[in-house]
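Mods, move this if it's the wrong board.
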Amino acid sequence: MATRHSGLQLQVIKLYRQSLVAAKAKPPQYRDNWIRFVRSEFAKNRSVSPKDFNTIEYLVRWGNSRLNTLKNPSIQNISSM
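Not the wrong board. Structure tokens:
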């Protein structure tokens, strides 16, 4: 049986997937750097309590703004961010 996720959990999952897709759209020589960056950013916040809604909502908003930056085609490598 499939696990049901809350709306906030779905937002986090969506942000993670979109971030990985955007990272994989970067040039091949920088792609691994971006994927490592995305994974490390999510891992940093893995310890946030699932009941800490304010923090999670803030992190999702912050992540969406970073995603917009990541999608910018003029930014090639993580060091240029």
